[in-house]
Amino acid sequence: MTTYVLTAPQGPKVGPHLGRPRRHILGLATRRALVAYAVVLLLWQFGATSQSWLGTRLPVIGNVPSPVSVAVAWVGLVGDPGYWQSWYLSFSRVLLGFAAAVLVGVPFGLTMALNPLFRGIAFPVFELLRPIPPLAWVPAAVIFWPTQELSIDFVIFLGAFYTLVINVMQGARAIDGRLIQVARSMGGSRWNVFRRLILPGALPSICLGMEVGIGITWEVVVAAEMISGGGSGGTAASGGGLGFFIWSSYVGGSYAQIVVGMISIGIAGYLSSAALRRLEVLLTPWRRAY
Amino acid sequence: MMPTSVARGALHIEEVVKIYDPHGARIPAVDRCSFNVAAGEICMIVGPSGCGKTTLLNAIAGFLPIDGGTIRLDGEILCGAGRPQAKVGPDRIVVFQNGSLFPWKSNLENVAFGPIMQKAMSPEQALDTARRMMAEAGLGGLEHLYPGETSSGVRRRVEIVRALINDPTVLLLDEPYRALDALTKSVMHEALLEMYYRKKTTIFFITHDLEEAIFLGHRVIVMTSRPCRPKLILDVDIPYPRDYGVLTSPRFRELMGAAAAAVQEEAAKAFELGEKEGVAA
């Protein structure tokens, strides 16, 4: 009699060269980002300290404060409430200007996309104003608006407004006409075509416009906050906003602080865009499918 | 092979003219085109690219005005003298070549869209009906996926169910299976016939694929190259229900031969026309 020995199925064999699968606490994208930051910091550090190890100052980068000195300056600021107030002020200005741009820009862009008469009237004016950089609006804004704060918000608003409107308009006009024909033949009223087709159809472009737009608001925050002249206090870190913080650090000659301010704006912009990307995923769930 | 006992969905196309006028060129896309589609018929329209078949379909659907003639549905004038453009309506639903499901609605919401829009059913009723019809069409379990998450074959089926839930008088199909591979296509054909047997809705079906045309249709109408007019009307005397076995039957081959000769002739004409216009432009 023959006995058959059944062996229990083994797990997938792992070749010796593969070894134990490594477990990572951080995801691949995060690890790559960290490596990239580390490389940039290292190159910057070497470049900025070229005087000491090369004997001669490298052009451009040799004049920049080193990451270490920036870090030291930053540590000095962490306990300074003025620095955090600058964060708060810039963030609230950006959010206010940006929210106004969304509230005005989305309906404006949609109306231009859907109504030829309105587009015929509004678009030429819009196109004429669009190339004027927000910075060029600063003096006029100071004159037009009753308070300093409103002038700043207005300049920030302009930063996001134009990009947003262009995106909303293109997005709404790019919707496949056949979808609208189908909806009409199935009895969809004009309002339903707008609400159930044009709005969701334009949503990805609206989100893209917001993402690009909020980036620009942080780009113009320096120009806008030059208006503020330092808010209530007047010293470098006493609350003019991050944009003003950079300007006054430059005027005050603390170069490491300039860089702290720059990186702070970079971080703030990154956070804002990341939040909007998160919002986009929530608003347009069907796009995960593509 | 005319269908019997179907009360509605008869199309009468009489002397229809449609002229495109880009920069005053006045190109007649459809010229004194006349033919009828019987109630409950699957009428296949074949013709060279750009011959004006889709123009005709758009005129029936109400997406385009015509420049002459009359189109009637069950005796009522859709468009004609005094009313160049038909009103769009759920009695004539179009399924397009590349699909036009709403990407932001789930398959189920897509199917339920029509009845909800027309207020023909409450949203709950519409969703229930949609669920049942999807199950009948073998689409159970795919209700909550977005169209983008499913294969092109599934999307086409969902789209036809979305059309049928409106209980249309005529289903207008504009090369709905063009982009599909042969295998998926054959599954689509059997699924379409399956749905047809249940409802006997009149189907106006534009295609380039002769095999598809003869396999599905009661009749195949081969159109001339621009301007569009019937060149050959072929009665497909193969009884329903049809399965893929008929493809190899002698009668099928005979019909294929007759249709192919007519199509070939027109395609050559269309090609020449295109060449001339290319030189002129």
Describe it for me?
The complex is a heterodimer of chains A (290) and B (281). Chain A has 290 residues and is mainly alpha-helical. Chain A folds into 2 domains: 28-63; 67-289, Orthogonal Bundle (MetI-like fold). Chain A contains 11 helices and no strands. Chain A has helices at 28-48, 50-54, 67-78, 81-114, 116-129, 134-144, 148-173, 177-185, 190-225, 242-252, 255-283. In chain A, helix 9 (190-225) runs parallel beside helix 10 (242-252). Chain A is globular, with a radius of gyration of 27 Å. Chain A starts with 27 loop residues before the first helix and ends in a 7-residue tail after the last helix. Residues 231-237 of chain A have low confidence and may be disordered. Chain B is of the alpha/beta class and 281 residues long. Chain B has a domain at 9-86 and 207-281: P-loop containing nucleotide triphosphate hydrolases (Rossmann fold, 3-Layer(aba) Sandwich), CATH 3.40.50. Chain B has a 6-stranded mixed beta sheet with strand order 6-7-8-3-9-10, with helices on both faces. Chain B has a 4-stranded antiparallel beta sheet with strand order 2-1-4-5, with helices on one face. In chain B, helix 2 crosses helix 3, helix 2 (107-117) packs parallel to helix 4 (152-164) and helix 4 runs parallel beside helix 5 (182-199). The longest helix of chain B has 31 residues, at 250-280. Chain B is globular, with a radius of gyration of 19 Å. Chain B starts with 10 loop residues before the first strand and ends with a helix. The model of chain B has no long low-confidence stretch (mean pLDDT 87). Chain A binds chain B through residues 176, 178-179, 181-189, 192, 196-197, 200-201, 203, 284-287, 289-290, and chain B through 61-63, 88-90, 92-94, 96, 100, 102-105, 113-114, 117-119, 145-149, 166.
